[in-house]
Design a protein that fits this description.
There is one protein chain. The protein is of the alpha/beta class. It has one domain: 4-Layer Sandwich (Nitrilase/N-carbamoyl-D-aminoacid amidohydrolase). The protein has six helices and 16 strands. The strands form four sheets. Strands 5-4-3-2-1-14 form a six-stranded mixed β-sheet. Strands 6-7-8-9-12-13 form a six-stranded mixed β-sheet, covered by helices on one side. Strand 7, helix 5 and strand 8 form a beta-alpha-beta unit. Helix 1 runs parallel beside helix 3 and helix 5 packs parallel to helix 6. It is globular, with a radius of gyration of 18 Å. It starts with a strand and ends in a 17-residue tail after the last strand. Bound molecules: acetamide.
Length: 268
């Protein structure tokens, strides 16, 4: 299975430009699965709910999903990408999964970061796993990385590949995702953006690039630079992520002792 991550430099509010850049880039390569950044079509730093509502789209009838559906069909490829979703007066920081046969599903970001809490509704769709036939994938978005429970739940539900659309501004995520891959025995694809946004008098946000493909043993197969745009690809055998063995006598999941993990499922 050929998998990839796309790293972009979105221009805020220039949806047509951001979509065209993605289509131009992805049209040039062949892959089975491509992960794209969080909010790849709008940019990140919203300054009001009104602005967010004006750029958010319906899933899957909005223009970004429709353009990506056409691309997925043309390229015979599964795509995972982040957009602002509008649904009955609510706006979510969402990721969409679709493929050559059409729309498959979506994930609404559960752990909102900083100013996102002022504008977006927290995700309410849970951590779902989607069976693409070639592999089972799970989605988490950017700051979800800070909560190891996100990747764990996806892996326990059978995800072999974690797709991680991101607009990262904090350090350490790329390294932490190696750990998420090791402890869960899953491949992880973190797709990030580059550049800086400083809108409406807010503090500048500089995005950290370094989109990466990590294997089920936590090894970095590909990592992009902090300032480049484009795509990196890797060939993997997703079936390797079904085996959760650590040693002949240890298994990541069978050795868990959930009877001692009660604090994990209590609100503090
Ligand atoms: C983030 O969650 N976009 C930092």
């Amino acid at each position: 299975m050929r998998i990839g991550v796309y790293q972009n430099h979105s221009l805020f509010g220039q949806v047509d430009y951001n979509i065209k850049e993605a289509i131009d880039s992805i049209s040039r390569i062949n892959a089975d699965l491509m992960v794209m950044p969080e909010l790849f079509n709008t940019g990140y730093q919203f300054i009001s709910k009104k602005e967010l509502r004006s750029l958010a789209e319906d899933i899957p009838s909005g223009k970004t999903c429709q353009a990506m559906l056409e691309l997925a069909q043309k390229k015979d490829m599964f795509l995972v990408f982040g957009i602002a979703e509008k649904d009955q007066g609510h706006c979510y920081n969402s990721a969409v999964v679709l493929g050559p046969q059409g729309f498959i599903g979506k994930y609404r970001k559960i752990h909102l970061f900083d100013n996102e809490k002022l504008f977006f509704d927290p995700g309410n769709s849970g951590f779902e796993v989607f069976d693409l036939g070639l592999a089972k994938i799970g989605i988490m978005i950017c700051f979800d990385w800070w909560f190891p429970e996100a990747a764990r739940v996806l892996a326990l539900k059978g995800a072999q590949i974690i797709c991680h659309p991101s607009n990262l501004v904090l350090d350490h995520c790329q390294d932490a995702m190696q750990t998420r891959s090791i402890e869960n025995g899953v491949f992880s694809l973190t797709s990030n953006r580059i550049g800086t946004e400083a809108r409406g008098g807010k503090s500048p946000l500089t995005f950290t690039g370094q989109s990466q493909i990590v294997d089920n043993k936590g090894r970095i197969l590909r990592r992009m630079k902090k300032t480049e745009t484009g795509i990196v690809l890797a060939g993997i055998d997703a079936k390797q992520a079904i085996d959760k063995k650590i040693t002949p006598l240890n298994d990541r999941f069978k050795d868990r002792r959930p009877e001692f993990y009660q604090p994990l499922i209590r609100n503090q």
